[in-house]
Amino acid sequence: MTRKIPLSFTGKKVIVFDLDGTIVRLAADWHSLFKALTSRFTEKYREAINYHSMSAILSKIVEKGDEEELQLNFNLIRQYELENITRNESIKETIFFLNNKELFGVSHSANLAVFSLNTRSTILKSLKMAGILDKFEFFVGREDVRKWKPEPDGLLKILDYFKVNAEDIIYFGDSEIDLLAGSNAGVESYYIDTLINHVRNMKKS
Ligand SMILES: [Mg+2]
Hints:
Mean pLDDT: 95
Largest sheet: 5 strands, parallel
CATH class of the largest domain: Alpha Beta
Order of helices and strands: EEHHHEHEHEHEHEH
Bound molecules: magnesium ion
Number of strands: 7
Number of domains: 2
């Protein structure tokens, strides 16, 4: 469901996007990756786990203070994400917005950033393939935080980098955890569908 309220970018200094499902659709085999991470954990720690997300597994490794294992998990995630990266699909309305943001009332001086659960290589490669890498100034990926969405840490990192306040930024994502992360950081957040509809209406008129 999308909200029928007009989006306003007035006063926004930074526009932040999730990656997968928001700018592009990744073609990674998430199911096999999740299984690989689960068996790695079980073999390494000899403990059964029953988590429903990669972030939950990684959080458990962080809790154990095992930075080396965490890095190996990041490597595995990166490998799965990059494996099928040539099969990425761009989300054309988001790409249109990014290429024409002044048409939507975005200030010339506004910056763009990515806050994603994907690895940094995947973010950079995906944006490069979509021809929009140079539009972005800052990236927070899987490796850059130790508390993942819906925790607000990545957005707080973005606020800190740009030296701006929560009300100066706006965040778009495709999942409930994106909106929760936004609300946990006190940042105005929308489902990407809201922006997609906004772009379609703009193109119609
Ligand atoms: Mg997403």
